[in-house]
């Protein structure tokens, strides 16, 4: 009887573990984002930083080079 009780507990533990594995196993309950969206957002962020860099160089940099 003890062997049977232990095997059912082991089977229940395996069932619990099996449900947790796979996508979403990190415990997060939020929405998942497709890899294409992540790629577009990261390229957009890089472009935004590049535009800020250019704006900073053109308009916010001290204009000492043209003065004598």
TrEMBL record:
It holds the Pfam family Sec61_beta. One of its GO terms (biological process) is intracellular protein transport. Coiled coil: none annotated. It is a single-pass membrane protein. Residues 1-13 have a biased composition (Low complexity). It comes from the Eukaryota. The keyword Transmembrane applies. One of its GO terms (cellular component) is Sec61 translocon complex. Keywords: Endoplasmic reticulum, Membrane, Protein transport, Translocation, Transmembrane, Transmembrane helix, Transport. Belongs to the SEC61-beta family. This is Protein transport protein Sec61 subunit beta. It comes from Papaver nudicaule (Iceland poppy).
